[in-house]
Amino acid sequence: PALRRLSHSLLAHYQKGTRPVRDWRTTTNVAIDLMVYAILSVDEKNQVLTTYVWYRQHWTDEFLRWDPERFDNLTQISLPVESIWVPDILINEFVDVGKSPHVPYVYVSHHGEVQNLKPIQVMTACSLDIYNFPFDVQNCSLTFTSWLLFIRDINLSLWRQPELVKFDRSVFMNQGEWELLYVLSRFQEFSVKSSDSYAEMKFYLVIRRRPLFYTVSLLLPSIFLMVMDIVGFYLPPNSGERVSFKITLLLGYSVFLIIVSDTLPATAVGTPLIGIYFVVCMALLVISLTETILIVRLVHKQDLQPHVPEWVKRLLLERATILLCIWDRKKFSQSRTQSSDISRQVENDSTAKLNQYGCEDPRECETVGGAGPTLASAGQAEGSLLLHGVLREITAIRQFLEKREEFRDVAREWLQVGYVLDVLLFRAYLAAVLAYTITLGTLWSVWRDA
């Protein structure tokens, strides 16, 4: 009976369409509070943040006061929201109506203090910066203001102290992709076209993405493929296996980019740094394949391949080997000297053996044969013709072997040039990869700490 009598007494002559003050010059002070319950989704493409918050309002209604002694010492009562005046406080960043539960009642104390507590799903516009993805930190604002009433009618204030609001994570569900760092609050006045100002209370939600999933699924596979590309340089440069190996890596990285393209956030404003990282890694793989094709083409054996120019020998085989600390740079020149000595030794041995059986000059053979009897001259002439034929065949074979040995020397020289050039390009490539990796790692670590 006391609750019924009190409710009927308060609402019998209540005018909910009028601001509840006895003097119209009195300003209604609305204290608000915000507690973040969950970060539901972050839509980078549409720049929309969806959160679930616990929102509280507190104001004084001068027409909802009573004496507790007249109503069985009742000091607090719940009344329907539709029956009393409620301030028209909205969020400026609202872009869609969320699925918020309807709370039909408010609490009213005997001093006229009204408390409106309700959970709301907030879908707000937010300027999302994804350049530092997946180590990005987002700062989204929720601006509470009266849509029609000026600051002389409704003024806003903070229910609790700003320090308590900043680090309050007592109800936050900290199990999703995003973690709440802190909530900043600030009061300001806002005016449009020199009109009366409005009171605004801004809450800045600072959230940070957890990068572990993206590090494992995006960064580590890319790093492994780049490491395998560097290891591929240890294959012999004169074999064709390196080319096929690097082409396989390039195809595998292309498939990897197709798979992760749906994971990367897409906006019309810019591209995340990790997307640039993937593109640069693809460019490095293409450069590595181009370098491998150049080296294989350089050391490929061909019969019509010319000798190595002298300036190339001085530049690569002398100066570059000292600069690159290649200690076995003399082995090819030694092999070429040994091959020339072997060729000369074979030539001398064959000449000596021919001189045992005949003469290279026919006049010498005639001089030697002139002392013999006349009947043996015909046999000696026939033997001399036979020896001349054998000598011509052996000379042709010797010239062929010398030519082949010359081709081998040319191939050895180009192989040495290719080896030195391969070491030079590999170290330059490795330095570029290390510099690029250190730069990205430093940037990401600085952003994460900041």
From TrEMBL:
Annotated Gene Ontology MF terms? extracellular ligand-gated monoatomic ion channel activity; transmembrane signaling receptor activity
Q: Cite the entry's keywords alphabetically.
A: Cell membrane, Disulfide bond, Glycoprotein, Ion channel, Ion transport, Ligand-gated ion channel, Membrane, Postsynaptic cell membrane, Receptor, Signal, Synapse, Transmembrane, Transmembrane helix, Transport
Topology versus the membrane, per the UniProt entry?
Multi-pass membrane protein
InterPro entries tied to this protein: 5HT3_rcpt, 5HT3_rcpt_A, LGIC_TM_5-HT3, Neur_chan_lig-bd, Neur_chan_lig-bd_sf, Neur_channel, Neuro-gated_channel_TM_sf, Neuro_actylchol_rec
Where do the Neurotransmitter-gated ion-channel transmembrane domain residues begin and end?
218-439
Taking the first listed entry, what is the main subcellular location of this protein, grouped into a coarse class? membrane
Looking up PANTHER family in the UniProt record yields: NEUROTRANSMITTER GATED ION CHANNEL
State the protein's name.
Answer: 5-hydroxytryptamine receptor 3A
Organism for this UniProt entry: Alca torda (Razorbill)
